[in-house]
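Hi Q.,

Before the meeting this afternoon, I wanted you to have the nicotinamide-adenine-dinucleotide prediction in hand. No need to reply - just skim if you have a minute. The sequence and ligand are here:
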Amino acid sequence: MPALSHTREGAQASRVNFETKGDVMEMAAAKNANTARQIADAHFDFASDFLGLSDSVKAFLKTPFRVVQVTLPITMDDGLLQLFAGYRIQHNDLHTPMMGGIRYHPAVDESELAALAETTSWKAALVRIPVGGAMGGVRCDPRFLSKGELRRITQKYIARIHRVLGPHEDIPAPDMNTSSEVMAWILQEYADRHGPNLACVTGKPGYLEGLMNPHEAASMGAAFVLSKHVNELGHSLKGMKVAVQGFGRLGSNLALMLSRQGCEIVAVSDIYWGIKSRGGAGISIADLIRHVEESGSVADFPEAETIDREEVLSSDSDILISAAMECTITEENARKIKARFVVEAANMPTCSGADEVLEENGITVLPDILVNAGSLIGAYLEWTRNQGAQNHGNPELETDKRLAAAYTEVMKRAVDKGLSLKKAAYTIALERMAAEEAKHNNWRSRAAWTGGGQ
Ligand code: NAD
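Predicted structure with the ligand bound:
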């Protein structure tokens, strides 16, 4: 089992050990880069066919509004120059501004980010946030970068893309491996060129008028939707057994919240290993978080048995939280899932073939565009407050209100049309986007008819 560490030296040392297993991060990167697009396409194709959208509307809704790719030459700590690829994809400007995360990860490429930007548009439409979807990132492996290198990458990235950002254009937020500190660096870089404006980025630290920590907002939202669904079925979360796939910022936070609500966390995985509780009591999440902070992995947690990460999926649980990244539930491992509910806390965690397997096995999937929309709602509330434009009151209550409304609509569509919750969610989102497109197209044609536009 590899000795892991969060330090740069530890990470590099552990890399040597990974060679015996193959570098799992790189393997995951290669796999995920191909699948995010396929997952997004499968949802889009189903929903657009269901709604009977014309080919031209389909093409309009699918094609990104703007794709920016930049090269970032960075002087590394050892004095050598290294080139990194950076991207910002803006999916749709039917509503402005556009909003979406920035991730630093080895799997980052145009195809993955375009799929995530598109999904952000559907998410916004589902929870009635009037923004377009965007997503950006830098292809790098933060495990092997110092803080100084990460800061220089961020500064160069914003120097290259700042012209397409802005408080009324496109507003970044944190995603995988980017923190509120990275958002503060972005704010500074943007301010150096355009003047100070807190509304140019969200997920900032509190002292910079940040409102809700995005992974906490996403976890709170996920716990809220899960609890609402379970209650709707006449049950309670108390005593339910939960397995967690992915123990990063989102997964660990959500596990903590659910354990506080009386759930028993029976198994947890990260990209390297899994653990399962040794009978009886569930895993203490607060202790596990400390263990991961010190060692870099869930492996070797003293109170649990270390197992292969995939075994966590087949553990004896009622609920599986999928909080890792795209396509971590595959057609193959979906067959092993014993839980009754899969909660898509991550974006697009279920590969397209796997959706059918889960449906056949009677497993309810609470869909990503509903479950993790809390962070997008939080970002929108932060942006409106930063502008002094509108105060929506208590952000947590406002988030719950919007999620509850969207949940009710999804349930109704699912029941009325005999669809899974995921299919229902995507058809609602796409229907709203198509209606918005029709409204804009109508204005465009009228302007052209009067000679005022095209
Ligand atoms: P993170 O990098 O902090 O955590 C990811 C975790 O998943 C890590 O523990 C990693 O080891 C694990 N992992 C990766 N592949 C795995 C696999 N195949 N099996 C098991 N574990 C695996 O990332 P995060 O910020 O927690 O984000 C996770 C997901 O949530 C992403 O899809 C992200 O887009 C989404 N999300 C994040 C935020 C946020 O603010 N951080 C908000 C909303 C949604």
